[in-house]
């Protein structure tokens, strides 16, 4: 285990900026990107630095596609500033906008006053003490999230079985872990998980007579295993823009015809919060 003493390396950041970051409703990927930018700017006593999408993706263990999407939002919201755009030979140079009053499209969670003592300005409460709108919404979302995980992830497994791909006997802990990670990291909803499985079945059938047929993936493998030599999950190959989607699915309207699972790709409305 490495030493965690500050003398062996630390990041200096103004308390006011630090507080502004954790009080703003960034989703998990955005927060990771911000922390990464801070690490490689303030962490090296520099104001800005050239950071590629691939570098950030590897540093925070999030797919390049989602890093690109969320970084774009952070730049549009003026949270991250582009000092110099990328060139043929150099990555884009970026920095944190430490004037957080200029951040756009970001909601700040209100701090709760502590009336029980004069020693501290603010206190930590449990969920029953939350009074602001943002905090109430957060509680509701967390409750929905827990219900969603327990009841509906199993429905994705049941749908997988109905596709007659691999006849798993039981819904195992490894399967739960795999789909939970896919949902958290890739921002899938339940409908989109089923869409990806339907596309997988379609690709397997379409490629079975080809020189390089696509093999059937088990449930845990499909949602939890990374593509060989890459950082993204196998299920990502079936997203819009993914390898198999572009090769087999893109021009096949029958895959999402009426009566089939609709393409409901989009961020989860209740999971992507600071608790990840």
UniProtKB/TrEMBL annotation:
Every Bacteriophage lambda Replication protein O N-terminal domain range: 5-103
Alphabetical list of InterPro entries matching this protein: Phage_lambda_VrpO_N (IPR006497), WH-like_DNA-bd_sf (IPR036388)
Highest rank taxon of the organism: Bacteria
Annotated NCBIfam families: phage_O_Nterm (TIGR01610)
UniProt name for this protein: Replication protein
């Amino acid at each position: 285990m490495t030493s965690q003493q500050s003398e062996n390396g630390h990041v200096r950041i103004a308390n006011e900026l630090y507080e502004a970051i954790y009080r703003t409703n960034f989703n998990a990927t955005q927060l990771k990107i911000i922390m990464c930018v801070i690490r490689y700017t303030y962490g090296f006593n520099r104001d800005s630095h050239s950071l590629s999408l691939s570098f950030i993706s590897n540093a925070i263990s999030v797919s390049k596609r989602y890093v690109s999407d969320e970084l774009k939002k952070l730049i549009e919201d003026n949270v991250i500033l582009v000092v110099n755009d990328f060139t043929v030979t150099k990555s884009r140079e970026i920095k944190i906008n430490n004037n957080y009053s200029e951040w756009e499209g970001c909601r700040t969670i209100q701090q709760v006053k502590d009336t029980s003592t004069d020693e501290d300005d603010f206190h930590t409460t449990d969920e029953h003490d939350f009074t602001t709108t943002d905090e109430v919404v957060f509680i509701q979302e967390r409750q929905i999230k827990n219900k969603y995980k327990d009841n509906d992830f199993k429905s994705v497994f049941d749908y997988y079985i109905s596709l007659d791909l691999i006849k798993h006997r039981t819904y195992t802990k490894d399967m739960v872990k795999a789909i939970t990670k896919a949902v958290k990291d890739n921002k899938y909803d339940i409908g989109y998980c089923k869409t990806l499985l339907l596309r997988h079945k379609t690709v397997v059938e379409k490629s079975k007579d080809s020189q390089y047929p696509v093999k059937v993936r088990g449930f845990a493998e499909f949602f939890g295993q990374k593509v060989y030599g890459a950082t993204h999950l196998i299920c990502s190959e079936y997203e819009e823009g993914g390898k198999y989607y572009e090769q087999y699915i893109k021009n096949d309207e029958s895959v999402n015809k009426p009566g089939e699972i609709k393409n409901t790709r989009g961020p989860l409305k209740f999971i992507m919060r600071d608790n990840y």
